[in-house]
Amino acid sequence: MLTFQDKQAIGSAILQNSEIPLSAIWSNNTAILIEFNEAILDAMPDAKEYYEARAEQLIPFDIPIIVEEPYRWGLENED
Q1: Confidence band of 40 (pLDDT split at 50, 70, 90)
Q2: What is the bridge-based pairing of β-strands 65-68 and 32-35?
Q3: What are the phi and psi torsion angles at 32 (to 5°)?
Q4: Which residue ranges form the domains of the chain, and what is each CATH number?
Q5: Distance CA 74, CA 8 (A)
Q6: Strands ordered across the beta sheet of 24-27
Q7: Strand 24-27 versus strand 65-68 pairing type
Q8: Would 6 disulfide with which of 2, 15, 20, 63, CB 3.0-4.6 Å?
């Protein structure tokens, strides 16, 4: 039986070798977290939902996938 950590490692490897254009991937105690370059999100408004669903399709077991918003440099003081 695979542990949650094993599933995270396998799931991360699957995503790293997939067509999903990741800029970062990491995990915590509850999920695999992925991030995209903001240019992808600008070019494809539904990229977050699309790639989150695609990641869930690729991983053959139930593990949460969280798509993090990219840090937008220079926008931290804008309101």
Answers
A1: confident
A2: parallel
A3: -100, 130
A4: 4-68 (3.30.70)
A5: 33
A6: 24-27, 32-35, 65-68
A7: unpaired
A8: 2
CA-to-CA separations, 3 to 12, 15, 25, 27, 56, in angstroms, rounded: 14, 18, 19, 14, 18
Residues linked to residue 1 through DSSP beta bridges, in sequence order = none
Rounded distance between C-alpha atoms, residue 71 and residue 68, angstroms:
9
pLDDT, mean of residues 39-63: 90
pTM metric for this prediction: 0.80
- Read off the amino acid at residue 13: A
Q: What percentage of residues in the chain have a pLDDT greater than 70?
A: 89
Q: Which residues pair with 24 in a beta bridge?
A: 35
Report yes or no: 32 and 66 within 8 Å, Cβ to Cβ: yes
